[in-house]
Amino acid sequence: NKFNNKKYRLVVRFTNRRVICQIMYATIRGDMVVAQATSTELTKYGVPVGHKNYAAAYCTGLLVARRVLKKFGLDETFKGKEEIDGEDYHVEDEEN
User: Fold this and answer.
1) For residue 54, which phi and psi values (nearest 5 degrees)?
2) CA 68 and chain centroid, separation
3) I need a surface site. Which of 15, 37, 51, 59 has the fewest CB within 10 A?
4) Would you give per-residue pLDDT tens digits along the chain (96 residues)?
5) How far is CA 28 from the centre of its chain?
6) Distance (Å, whole) CA 75 – CA 38
7) Measured in whole angstroms, how far is the alpha carbon of residue 25 from the centre of its chain?
8) Ordered alpha helix ranges (H), 1-96
9) Coil, strand or helix: which one is 21?
10) What pTM does this model have?
């Protein structure tokens, strides 16, 4: 049924103090939020200040992406970078 398919969207909102990232899909009843993360949660991960800039938006997007992968059970399939060494990381390179 083409009317009941879920098309997931990443919604990013910039407020005066923080960044809000949400994964949503639309229904006839209204928009449903699958997962969300705010940049104020970054203090738990070692980013005490700067919750309004583009770097905070990037980190918040990574946080919400990891939450969605965990919710759908794909977090073990897409692990990401295990150790931080400053090199570029591409998922396609891991598949070969």
Assistant:
1) -65, -30
2) 7
3) 15
4) 667 788 999 999 999 999 999 999 988 889 999 999 999 999 999 889 999 999 999 999 999 999 999 999 998 888 877 787 877 777 777 666
5) 25
6) 20
7) 14
8) 54-71, 91-95
9) strand
10) 0.79
Residue type, 60: T
Please answer whether residues 33 and 51 qualify as being in contact, where contact means their C-beta atoms are separated by less than 8 angstroms.
no
Instruction: For residue 43, count CB atoms less than 10 angstroms from its CB and return exposed for 0-12, middle for 13-18, buried for 19 or more.
Output: exposed
* 76 secondary structure, DSSP code: T
Under DSSP, the state recorded for 49 is S
* Residue 21 CB-density burial (10 A; 0-12 exposed, 13-18 middle, 19+ buried): buried
Strands (E), 1-96: 9-14, 19-26, 31-38
